[in-house]
Amino acid sequence: MENESVKSEHSGRSRRSRNHNSNSGGGGNGGGGGGTINNSYHRDRTRHSHRSTHSKSSKQPRDMAPFQTSVNMTGDENRDGQEIIEVQILPQDENWGENTTAVTGNTSEQSISMEDINSTWNRDNETSLGFACKRYIESVFCLILGFVSFFSPVAMVMMPKLGFFPSAFDHPELTQTVKTQLLACSSECKGLLVSLTARLILLALGLWALFLRRPSATMPRIFLFRATVLLLVTVSTFSYWLFYIVQVTNGAKIVVETGGDAVDYKSLVAYATNFVDTLIFIHYIAVVLLELRHTQPTYYVKIIRSPDGVSRSYTLGQLSIQRAAVWVLQRYYVDFPIYNPYLERIPISKSQRNKISTSFKYYEVDGVSTAQQQSQSRAVLAANARRRDSSHNERFYEEHEYERRVKKRRARLITAAEEAFTHIKRIHNEPAPAIPLDPHEAAQAVFPSMARALQKYLRVTRQQPRHTFESILKHLAHCLKHDLSPRAFLEPYLTETPVLQSEKERRWVQSWSLICDELLSRPISNECTFQLIQNDVSLIVAIHKLPHFNISEEVVDPKSNKFVLKLNSETSV
User: Fold this and answer.
1) Which of these, 99, 125, 276, 528, could form a disulfide with 199 (CB 3.0-4.6 Å)?
2) pTM
3) Dihedral in degrees, nearest 10, Cα atoms 428, 431, 437, 438
4) Whose CA is closest to 348, among 71, 77, 98?
5) Please, are residues 514 and 353 in contact by the beta-carbon 8 Å criterion?
6) pLDDT per residue as tens digits for the range 211-250
7) Which pairs from 239-245 meet CB under 8 Å and 24+ separation?
8) Is residue 80 a contact partner of residue 348, using CB atoms and an 8 Å limit?
9) 325-358: b or e for each residue (b if 16 or more CB lie within 10 Å)?
10) Domain spans in the chain, listed from the N-terminal domain onward
11) Which segment of 171-175, 192-196, 438-442 scores lowest on mean pLDDT?
12) What is the pLDDT of residues 421-455, one digit of tens each?
């Protein structure tokens, strides 16, 4: 995890186990080995008690003393044979968030997991130059093309007035009267200019609403509908500029050689207006293809998250596979609860941990008969069968005990929060007997009374890596500033929905891998399945087509809405 650092030491019991292994390898030195174990145990225990006393005497709690935990490795083994880190509560005021109970098999401080490697690689990939180019090159190309096509009608209208085509309007064989008539703008021409300006303003608003926004995702394949719209804009712009240049440059030549009608300024304004109309029609096609086509529900989508098995169902319209993946991720970060990997195994209490029996194999050094071996084998197989048959029973009681502990800690937390909030009262312009406090100071004064209950609840629900002391204190000050209730303060800790509620998920870029047997640019179809993977989280998306609903009308005879009362002596009627 990014905000969590767990430091562990080799405890005395783990060292004792190593000493025991080394001494047991000697074979004949049994008594000496036992004395070494006892002496090392005494020394380790003395050092541990001395460190605890020294830490308690050197770090005294301040005015606000949140509770922190110290992590010690113990030799108790859980069901997987892994070591368990037990947590002790110490009244300290630093690193309140580093008080998690974790299950680990690594004791090396320099070890690194595959999850850390993947997260580091993803962060480097998200900040690389290639990713930035891939993310923004399409937007930059669309912006340049839209800028050129939008200002092309304006340029077509202004260029003849600025003298860009001298061969068309300043031909030596044309008289001054003809030149003046070609560049003159009558009242009808001015009306076309006003219409052109209004259409450009409407087109600018449409382009701003549809295209000028940050892209929500970077897709691996080309977006066919967007590419179709860009192709239409490119072809239209090129065609209109081609005909414009040809007509304007050959206008004077046509007048001189054939005596035909010349291209005057009014016809150029009308030509530019037609170009704007074409762009507006293309914008309409873009709205239909990009925004309206997928709004009609067509498919049923079921999303299952692995490994915790949380699922949600939605209706979806006509989209491509890659756009459907983006749509699924948008719903995932809003509707799904936060994935907590520490809850994959139900935490076991100390009383239940002591009940866990370890299976041993017994070997008879002296020779035994075949009948005795068969009877022992049958006894072992019967014991394993009974243990296997009762495993569901153990799981049921473990889940029941865990739910009971969570409800108990939840009730204590709510009570502690309500009692703490009763000591805070907002001052309304009247003199107060005590010194007034700002929201942050009030939060510092109130928090110690509920810190223990909150920490126990976060520990039993495995939320401590997600909530640091600074974030809790900031949230408490925010609630006091806005006069929120204790339940409103506890909402982030009692409710684990949505995913974006977690601060670790609030990143600018979320990298996912999309796996599908079909081409990602193709539209989704019935029985289509794809998978989204990010580190340990996997989303399986199954798509099914909605059925056709046949609704028929049925007329009820009004005469059938009559009733007869049956009298019975045994009834109250």
Assistant:
1) 276
2) 0.67
3) 40
4) 77
5) no
6) 888 888 888 888 999 999 999 999 999 999 998 888 777 6
7) 240/152, 240/156, 240/271, 240/275, 240/278, 241/152, 243/271, 244/156, 244/268, 244/271
8) no
9) bbbbbeebeeebebbeebeeeebbeeeeeeeeee
10) 12-111, 129-292, 380-495
11) 171-175
12) 988 877 766 666 667 888 899 999 999 999 999 99
Helix H or strand E encompassing 562: none
Question: CA nearest 151: which of 185, 183, 197?
Answer: 197
For residue 79, give the H/E element and its range. none
Residues in the chain: 573
Q: Centre a 10 Å sphere on the Cβ of residue 87 and count the other Cβ atoms it contains.
A: 18
**351-356 contact pairs (CB < 8 A, 24+):** 352/397, 352/398, 352/401, 353/76, 353/78, 356/78, 356/79
**For residue 232, which amino acid is it?**
L
Q: Where are the beta strands (DSSP E) in 439-520?
A: 513-516
∠ CA 455-456-461 to the nearest 5 degrees? 100
Residue showing tokens 């340049």: 144
Residue 105's DSSP bridge partners are none
| Gap between the Cα atoms of 368 and 188, Å rounded | 118
Helix boundaries (H) for 295-447? 321-335, 350-355, 370-389, 391-421, 439-446
In the chain, % of residues over pLDDT 70 = 61
Rounded Cα gap, residues 544 and 526, in angstroms: 5
Task: Tell me how far the alpha carbon of residue 423 is from its chain's centroid.
Answer: 37
